[in-house]
Write a structure and sequence with these properties.
Blueprint (H helix, E strand, L loop, with lengths): L2 H12 L4 E3 L36 H9 L7 E4 L3 E6 L5 H12 L3 H4 L2 E4 L7 E6 L17 E5 L3 E3 L12 E4 L10 H7 L4 E5 L5 E5 H9 L7 H14 L4 H12 L8 H6 L11 H10 L22 H4 L10 H12 L6 H16 L3 E3 L10 E4 L7 H13 L6 E2 L5 H10 L2 E6 L2 H9 L13 H9 L5 E2 L3 H25 L1 H20 L1 E2 L2 E8 L1 H7 L2 H5 L2 H4 L1 E4 L18 H11 L17 E5 L1 H24 L3 H19 L4 E2 L1 H27 L6 H12 L6 E2 H7 L5 H13 L3 E7 L6 E7 L1
Parallel strand pairs: 11-19, 12-17, 12-18, 13-14, 14-17, 19-20
Antiparallel strand pairs: 1-2, 2-7, 3-5, 3-6, 4-5, 4-8, 9-10, 15-16, 21-23, 22-23
Length: 766
């Protein structure tokens, strides 16, 4: 720890500031958090729970110093203090002058402790004592751009810390022990209004009184489940812009729910609001209406200020990141990605949806369209790029839920697949090198192919569509299976003669049930497939025939474009948080106890409701993909792929909405974003592979295939493209890239080697 840091951090501790360490930067100039894309250089907290860190003891503080947590800088929680954060880059200096003039207060003179931030230009932190008792204050004021008023929420970087510019946060005047009270005039200026403006059920903005918000929240039940508790907290945080008033309402409500622990809301509050809002006032109103709330007449059209409606659905999802699903799914997705040495965000999102489908899909139903919740994500990633932790995360979750008996590792035969479904209501396939398995199946009916695999794809499609029905078993297959079950029954009868009936009674009942299902059909068979493969194998597999036969079309493709990812620094796997364990247990068991080893639906099915605005958006999504199908009927003949877009969107939105029991517009927007990306990539692959077989369309096919291999969020080298497009020569690929760059479809990025100064090019979608 440098002398500059140490001198100031000891002063901060003496003033009883709550402090924590900040990540340093490696020799490459990247944050030590392990994410090379991290933009919070020298501002990234080391503890993930920084919002709830305590005032460390002398011993704990000493350990922090010894291990280097404070070597380059430290953060200060603004608990008990008010910091006026003036940012010169955003006009803060002029705003600060105007603030002093408007309130007739020389804040610099009145302030006993001022720190100049590393960005320079007049940027500074002015420290005051926060009001006692705490007040709900605005963190931003529209009249004073470039100034943050941080009080009892968030943190600031402490004096002596490094800034990414190379400068130091430097004390300009005073000591932290000598803070003066925040001027009354500033508190009056920042004190929260009695109303909050938020988004209602219809997607419009509405002013809601604090007391009415409290009334809405107090009608909501179900806070004993982790997801409902989190959703309500998120909704209140979004509605009140993270104010102390909002925290108070959430804490009051939480105290009325089972399982409340003192301080739990305060610990979680500061973790909300880091990205796009996942739950809004509209969702809170929907929850409350389900529990008897009646919206007052004051909520009429006169108080609505209609937002500008997006011109297109594409505009509506422009901010949606398919790597970050909403609500509990986002929490689970982050944990899955944290188990991976290499960042695998796309695969983590796929794994999350698959886990939710396996764990909760049999026990929930869609109250709107009765759509089943089974789901088939196919994942594409480079060989040896860190796929194994994804499998491990899935199995950890399924094991925690008691579902491992229904997990299978490969396709073998139709007969085995049927027997798997007779043993358990569900079959969950986890298949590595999935592309190779599909190729085997495609070759099964050809000369020299594995004939026992013939018809397996058709069988899986039939099972997949029967999740809410009955799948008959017929023909020779039925008789063969019955013969094997009868043989098992005969062997068990011999055991019962030796051991007594009681010991094997349950096993015999299970075999008799299997025999009955073989005769009368399998009720609600629940099939899920999670496949992993490499780009080279998978991309060639998606032909026009394969894409339109229903199997690939029903799946959702998740791709990691970076085939040589950079590992995370200081990587350490996280144990599964108790909140995730409890949520998974609730989704599968729901408090229902059953000692049977059979994996099946337990207890009553729970409805997933859909808000009015989400239902309208689903209708719009249907029209979007219908129009796309009409367009492709004459262009590519791939309309069958387009028609599956609505189904994929519906399933995904149900899965992210399932833990809370309500599908909201956020769920549909996320589902649509994934479905749109998925359909586009399938079409590019299928059309590209088909067109590449014909001389007249070969050049167009190459451009389509290049677009399908590129992504907006990662860069790809020319050599990588050549390696994956071996049926084309380098000149052809160069010409295609030139056309794509000229038409602004593809962006070229030049990189200069730091030593030899050699310039290389990489490509990404524009």
């Amino acid at each position: 720890m440098s002398n500059v840091v140490s001198n100031n951090v000891f002063d901060a501790r003496e003033a009883e500031f709550v402090i924590f360490g900040l990540q340093g930067v490696n020799e490459k100039g990247e944050c030590n958090c392990g994410n090379p894309e991290c933009t919070a250089l020298y501002k990234h907290p080391i503890p993930s729970n920084w919002g709830s860190v305590p005032f460390y003891s002398e011993e704990q503080f000493g350990v922090m110093c010894e291990v280097g947590h404070l070597s380059t800088g430290y953060g200060i929680l603004t608990n008990g203090i008010m910091v006026i954060d003036v940012d010169a880059r955003n006009g803060g200096v002029d705003s600060f002058k105007r603030l002093c003039e408007d309130l007739n207060i020389d804040f610099y003179k009145e302030c006993a402790y001022v720190v100049l931030t590393g960005s320079g230009g007049g940027s500074m932190h002015l420290y005051f004592k926060s009001p006692t008792p705490p007040k709900a204050l605005m963190q931003h004021h529209d009249n004073y751009k470039g100034i943050d008023f941080k009080c009892n929420s968030g943190f600031v970087v402490g004096a002596g810390s490094k800034h990414k510019s190379g400068n130091i946060y430097e004390v300009d005047k005073g000591y932290p022990q000598d803070l003066t009270d925040t001027p009354i005039a500033l508190l009056n200026l920042l004190e929260k209004k009695t109303q909050f403006r938020a988004t209602d059920l219809n997607g419009a903005t509405v002013d809601i009184e604090v007391e009415e918000l409290r009334n809405v929240v107090m009608h909501i039940t179900g806070g004993d489940t982790y997801q409902r508790w989190i959703d309500v907290g998120m909704g209140i945080h979004d509605t009140t812009q993270g104010s102390m008033q909002g925290l108070t309402i959430w804490d009051e409500w939480s105290q009325t729910q089972q399982g409340y622990e003192d301080g739990c809301t305060h610990k979680k509050w500061n973790t909300f609001g880091k990205g796009a809002a996942l739950v809004s006032l509209g969702t809170l109103i929907h929850f409350a209406k389900q529990d008897g709330y009646i919206q007052p007449v004051t909520f009429d059209a006169d108080v609505y200020v209609k937002t500008d409606e997006p011109k297109t659905l594409d505009d509506m999802i422009a901010h949606v990141d398919i790597r970050k699903p909403p609500k509990f799914a986002g929490v689970l997705c982050q944990w899955v990605n944290n188990q991976c040495l290499n960042p695998r965000e796309n695969l983590a999102a796929a794994a999350t949806l698959y886990i939710l489908s396996c764990v909760g899909g049999m026990r929930h139903y869609d109250a709107l369209n009765n759509m089943s919740l089974n789901f088939m994500p196919f994942c594409v990633a480079g060989s040896s790029s860190g796929k194994e932790p994804i499998f491990e995360s899935i199995t950890d979750c399924l094991m925690e839920s008691g579902l491992m008996a229904a997990v299978h590792g490969s396709f073998k035969s139709e007969q085995e697949a049927v027997r798997n479904l007779l043993r358990h209501q569900a079959s969950f396939y986890l298949i590595d090198e999935f592309g190779i398995e599909l190729k085997k199946i495609n070759q099964a009916s050809k000369s020299g192919g594995a004939s026992y695999l013939a018809g397996l794809i058709g069988f899986f499609m039939k099972v997949y569509s029967k999740a809410n029905g009955v799948m008959p078993v017929s023909g020779d297959l039925k008789e063969d299976i019955k013969d094997k079950i009868k043989a098992d029954i005969a062997r068990l009868n011999k055991k019962m003669d030796l051991d007594g009936e009681d010991k094997h009674r349950e096993e015999m009942a299970t075999l008799m049930a299997q025999l009955n299902s073989a005769d009368n059909g399998i009720v609600n068979p629940y099939l899920n497939i999670f496949g992993l493969t490499t780009p080279v194998t998978f991309d060639d597999l998606v032909t026009h025939e394969m894409a339109t036969n229903g199997f690939i079309a029903r799946s959702a493709i998740f791709r990691e474009h970076e085939t040589n990812p950079r590992r995370k620094k200081k990587f350490k796997k996280e144990p599964m948080p108790i909140g995730i364990k409890l949520a998974l247990a609730q989704l599968y068991n729901g408090g229902h106890s059953d000692d049977s080893y059979r994996i099946e639906r337990k207890g009553e099915k729970h409805a997933i409701t859909t808000t009015d605005d989400a239902e309208q958006l689903l209708d719009d999504v249907y029209e979007y993909f219908h129009e796309m199908a009409e367009d492709h009927k004459t262009k590519t003949g791939l309309e069958a792929i387009c028609r599956r877009g609505w189904e994929i969107c519906s399933k995904i939105s149900l899965l992210t909405g399932m833990p809370s029991g309500t599908r909201t517009i956020e769920d549909v927007m996320y589902g649509f974003a994934v479905a749109k990306w998925d359909i586009q990539k399938k079409i590019e692959l299928a059309y590209g592979n088909e067109a590449a077989q014909h001389k007249d369309t070969r050049a167009d096919a190459l451009m389509v295939k290049i677009r399908g291999m590129l992504d907006k969020d990662s860069e790809t080298t020319f050599g990588t493209l050549c390696n994956r497009l071996r049926e084309f020569n380098k000149d052809q690929i160069t010409q295609a890239l030139d056309i794509l760059v000229k038409n602004n479809a593809v962006m070229v990025i030049e990189h200069t080697h730091p030593i030899n100064k050699k310039v290389s090019k990489k490509y990404k979608l524009n």
